[in-house]
Write a structure and sequence with these properties.
Largest sheet: 7 strands, mixed
Strand content: 25-35%
CATH architecture of the largest domain: Alpha-Beta Barrel
Number of domains: 2
Number of strands: 22
Radius of gyration: 24 Å
CATH topology of the largest domain: TIM Barrel
CATH superfamily of the largest domain: Metal-dependent hydrolases
Distance between the termini: 58 Å
Shape: elongated
CATH class of the largest domain: Alpha Beta
Helix content: 25-40%
Length: 456
């Protein structure tokens, strides 16, 4: 039996009859399992292309009661005011939404122009905000390994505040650069794709975050560090990183990740631990959430199966917030101010000519560097392909498409062109998006320059 008072577990034991009074709400959970509310330890709300409020509306019925969000997408566009908007919105949610201060704004200094620049001063300022739980993923891993003063200053500001530094080591090189990065301060990482990546992080004292998002499917390989190598599961955490709205409505959120992890051979109890207590412990909140024990937040899901995890009832901080797959909590829409809108500034109309690549003088074909997309993974491959030349311009062949970056923050009208392989386009077409990690310039991919101009 469980008894809840003031949003926390007041009793966890064999019989809570002595806690029932005339105004007590009693929920009969006979025949169901009670598990802690699910925690997403690393994710970006903006990837769902909705606000914090609407993201919560989508995931609460799936059993998510806590999220640790890194709003570095809005930070790259709107700077500190944008982060503050999401921070303040998060505080009004019926579930726990903790915010990590975005670290790498921009993510690649000197290579791209963003909408804002953060350094140690901005990080120190955010550390004083009430809902900041740590530093968001430190993507500039070469900078940390090389002793970059800005990155080390941001990490130092976080550690002085006694908070957690998130990691992002997106390289298969587990040699000196990796060891230097870990020594720089990050305490977790979600960028691994192989079992050896997860094992290497854990052996260096980090927590390995295994992600299953809409596009990143990295749990199946990395979880073998537990299921086959026998490493201690307490050092592993499940997360989503990036979830599209369609994934949330069609497949679920952290319950989807758990089902997938269990299908890979994890014991259900271990999988639940990796999406609850492990995450809470990592952020130093194990006495606040992540388990069903006296004094903790009363976050509970009721389910009839620990394998399929149908989420029947969701309780957050002692309040029933979802039942039978439907939200029961009151979640008024959140209105963002005018300055958060109309942030795409191109400066001029684009034409087909903007997306053409000139060939070397007199060439009949051109050897081009091509970005190789890897399905369902974040890393890409560096390829080279021979492309045809016609009329002095480089054409396409063999599944290669055009990709362009259009500057959107300062209205410079700048366009940078390249080539990409792996989209599967086999007819004239184009797609454009200003959701483009991490500086969120407009990215245009296509096979026809006129279509690319129209899409942009």
């Amino acid at each position: 039996d469980l008894a809840v008072a003031a949003g926390r577990f007041a009793y966890c034991g064999p019989d809570a009859a002595h806690c029932i009074g005339p105004r007590t709400q009693v929920i009969d959970a006979e025949g169901r399992y009670m598990a802690p509310g699910l925690i997403d330890a690393h994710m970006h709300v903006e990837s769902g292309m909705v606000t914090v409020t609407e993201f919560c509306r989508a995931v609460i019925p799936h059993g998510t009661t806590t999220m640790f969000i890194d709003p570095h997408e809005i930070a790259n566009v709107l700077g500190l005011p944008g982060v503050r908007l999401m921070h303040d919105e998060a505080q009004g949610m019926p579930v726990g939404v903790f915010v990590q201060a975005p670290s790498c704004i921009p993510s690649a200094p000197g290579l791209e122009t963003g909408g804002a620049v953060f350094g140690p001063d901005e990080i120190a300022e955010m550390m004083d905000w009430p809902n900041i739980c740590g530093l968001g993923e430190v993507m500039n891993f070469p900078g940390v390994a090389a002793g970059d003063a800005t990155m080390l200053g941001e990490i130092a500001a976080t550690l002085r505040a006694g908070k957690t530094v998130g990691g992002h080591y997106a390289s298969p090189d587990l040699g000196r650069a990796f060891h230097a990065y870990v020594a720089g301060g990050p305490s977790d990482d979600h960028e691994g794709t192989r079992a050896q990546d997860a094992a290497a992080r854990v052996r260096q004292g980090m927590r390995a975050m295994l992600r299953l998002g809409s596009a990143w499917h990295d749990v199946a390989e990395q979880v073998k560090a537990v299921t086959e190598q026998g490493l201690d599961p307490r050092n592993f955490i499940l997360c989503t990183d990036d979830s599209h709205a369609g994934t949330l409505t069609r497949d679920g959120h952290m319950n989807r990740v758990l089902r997938h992890a269990i299908a890979q051979g994890l014991r259900p109890i271990t999988a639940i631990q990796m999406a609850t207590l492990n995450a809470a412990s990592h952020f130093g909140m194990e006495r606040e959430l992540g388990s069903i024990a006296p004094g903790r937040r009363a976050d509970v899901i009721l389910t009839s199966s620990l394998v399929d995890l149908p989420v029947e009832t969701v309780i957050a901080q002692g309040v029933v917030v979802a039942r039978g797959g439907a939200l029961t909590a009151d979640l008024p829409p959140y209105a963002y101010p005018a300055f958060a809108r109309g942030t795409v500034k191109l400066g001029r109309a684009l034409t087909a000519q903007d997306f053409r690549v000139a060939a070397p003088s007199g060439a009949n074909n051109a050897r081009a560097r091509v970005i190789g997309v890897i399905e369902n993974q974040a890393p890409t491959r560096a390829l080279e392909r021979d492309l045809p030349v016609s009329g002095g311009e480089v054409g396409l062949s063999g599944g290669v498409a055009r990709i362009a970056l259009v500057e959107r923050h300062r209205a410079t009208g700048g366009v940078v062109n390249a080539f990409v392989e792996g989209f599967g386009y086999d007819k004239p077409c184009a797609v454009a998006s200003t959701v483009a990690h991490d500086c969120h310039h407009m990215i245009v991919v296509g096979t026809d320059e006129a279509d690319m101009a129209a899409a942009a």
